[in-house]
Amino acid sequence: MTGRLICASNRTGSTRAASGGLAVALSAALKERGGIWFGWNGETVEEGESTGEPDVTEEGNVRLVAGPLTHHEFENYYLGYANSVLWPICHHRLDHVSFRRDYVDDYRRVNRRFAHQLGPLVREGDLVWVHDYHLIPLGAELRAQGIGARMGFFLHIPFPPPDILMAMPEHEWLIRSLFSYDLIGFQTNGDRMNFLHYVTEQAGGKVGSGNKVCAFGREVEVRAFPIGIDVEGFKQMTQTPEARRIIRRMRQRNLGRSQIIGVDRLDYSKGLPERYKAFQQLLERYPENQGRVVLMQIAQPTREAVDAYSDLRQEMEWLSGAINGQFGDFEWTPIRNIHRSVGRDTLAALFAASRVGLVTPLRDGMNLVAKEYAAAQDEEEPGVLVLSRFAGAAEMMDAALLVNPYNMEEVANAMQRALHMPAEERRERHQGLMRVIEETDVSIWAEAFLSALEHTPPPRQE
Question: Which residues are known catalytic residues?
Fold first, then answer.
């Protein structure tokens, strides 16, 4: 182990009360090595107010360094370039892209400001680990300041194929920025191959031995590191007295009906309207399920200032109302549409009480809900996971029922199969899923990335 760990992410967390897979992993790694967690504090200030120096909080051997954005930066850097350009591009949704010159200008400017705030804090021997699409150029900005520390970047969302990436005017600059890092990590081998295809086909790069790739006069290591969850911690959430109370209450409320559950952020990449239509087909094609199955969809609000998200919410409310009106009666509501955030401890209990986990995004980097659903199941009477082929999790979790989320008939058939699957097959599939999620536990993921970064020599000139 060399120096400290410097983590940079869009939002900082706390090492004392971490929640969520990534926060748990980063907190554990930071506390073990000591270091800094740098990012945005989630606050905005009025234009003309100085963002100033970020606030510093000491938590043992970890320093949290976080400051605000201006309203303008929030609109252009965060909602604009990050979430109206990069997010739809990476999720193959060119119809939702909004190209504006001021978006990319502010994206660069905010990353440059972050680098000027973080750079003086980095010491010789430190490891710098940058996370996700908000901060792609941060490494290049740090290098411009003369920072020579080993730096790694991990992309938590999908990486698109070259023909989609090239729809973005700044695609070459973006990829060139990534070559300032020593190690680039992706969720899946498919994402890694998309990156290598771009580098070799569009940037004149060459793939060498040992996961090395050369382009733009630099050599970096490129690998897949599938992220996971805190498996044991999530399993324990289903065993608390409160969790057992929720499970009993859900089963009493459902009156013997089977519950299908979907849990997603409210986002067009998650395939939520298609999911509702597939559930409608389940009820139409297999009428024996009418009155006997409930779909609980928790769609947690996100980025509601973007028109596409408010439109999606209205579409989901309209669809659920139409389906409930078509099939429901005074004793049975087919779809329970919940539009609010739900705590992870409650989610663990809801997963445990559900016969089917429905995870059908149109495109996803990994999708940890699939892993959480599997971890929450009783090993003697497990539920069945129905999983989109276009989620990163599908690359390894082939013990799930894999479906094409665009084919609603196929999804309906998979739900029917899951609802009536014999216990022996359910147990066998669950064992296969557990092997995968235990092998990719979030602590294993973090250690694998940091170990690879420590052993990666700094980038050399070609």
Answer: 156, 364
